[in-house]
Amino acid sequence: MTANTALKVLNNNTIRWSSPIEFNDPFDVPRELAYDVDTKELKLAIFSILLKLIEENNSDISHLTENVQRVLKLIRSSKKLTKGSITSILSDKESQIFELSSGLEELRKVWRAFIPEFRILCLTTRNDSASMWYHYADKYKGVTLGLACIDELDSPWLLARPVYYPVETPKLFTAEGWAEIIMTPQETALPKIFEAYTYTKTPDWSYEQEWRITSFKRPQETGTTSDYNLHPSHFCEIYLGPHIEENYRHQILSLVFNKMPQVKPYDVSFGLDQKFKFTLIEKG
Q1: 132-188 pLDDT, tens digit each
Q2: 166 — alpha (psi -120 to 50), left (phi > 0) or beta?
Q3: Hey, is 93 helix, strand or coil?
Q4: CA–CA separation, 241 and 133 (whole Å)
Q5: What pTM, to 2 d.p., does this model score?
Q6: How far apart are CA 258 and CA 98, in angstroms?
Q7: Is 137 exposed, middle or buried (0-12, 13-18, 19+ CB in 10 A)?
Q8: d(Cα 175, Cα 61) in Å, to the nearest integer?
């Protein structure tokens, strides 16, 4: 974070959680569900899944919506239907396949309302990433803040989960994946969407080694960010960037040494080995 933000965080004992609307990666927790999905491709994927389920007469369909189960059971119970007639039924404009593809818009409406209410705290296991120091810490003029996990204080980051950076596109990011999702009840579909979109990022961001905690804005809150209070013991380390301005360095060290003795401050410098060097600052 910037040095000015760090002073606010340490003085107020608060830390900011944000809606994905604030994120700099447009593919991170998408603001719109399946925004580029091809309707024709989606219908073909639904058709293919339904046909397979009909052919696999004994496969479990209990996880699907009641309407889909009803259609499948009706077709499966008929002894007279040929593959051609089944294809004709599924292709008919009045069939379940068209109703399903239109159901995507219902999920989109729920997601649009959900995104501004969502709150995520983004953490990292790294204090030595040049890219993050540059982009998030004011081009090496800011700080990196270390947080302690304390069982007795119910530290929220004890609930943090890692972000995954798969090389192959996750299934939910494909027409086939969306076909499966909209054939399941909303109470099943939404958690799956939430899971995939919240904890999956493209490999370009893998250097961040990110962990996340999720929450929702409180009823009285407005906007797309929330500053939540913390016990001061949660702050355990602070690393002062190589280019931090002297006035900020002085203010932060004064605050740490006089009011937050549990926080270990470090100067950060560029090492000759092309790595960051961390030097503990003694009170003097």
Answers
A1: 999 999 999 999 999 999 999 999 999 999 999 999 988 888 888 888 888 888 888
A2: beta
A3: coil
A4: 8
A5: 0.83
A6: 67
A7: buried
A8: 20
Which tokens is 95 given?
């069939």
Task: Give me the sign of the Cα torsion angle 64, 65, 66, 70.
Answer: negative
Cβ-based neighbours of 181, under 8 Å, separated by 6 or more: 107, 172, 189, 192, 193
Q: What angle do CA 68, 70, 75 make, to 5 degrees?
A: 95
Q: Two tokens at 56? A: 């696999």
Nearest CA among 157, 148, 87 for reference residue 123: 157
Token reading at 20: 């994905």
With a CB cutoff of 8 Å and minimum separation 6, the contacts of 210 are 122, 123, 124, 162, 163, 201
Residues in the chain, pLDDT under 70: 79-103
Identify residue 146 by its one-letter amino acid code: G
Give the type of residue at 21: I
Phi, psi of 100 (to 5 degrees): -65, -45
Is the backbone of residue 140 left (phi > 0), alpha (psi -120 to 50) or beta? left
Enumerate the H helices of 2-151 as residue ranges: 3-12, 39-55, 66-77, 83-91, 96-102, 104-114, 130-136
Residues 8-26 have pLDDT tens digits of: 999 999 999 999 999 888 7
Can you tell me which residue has the tokens 């040494």?
257
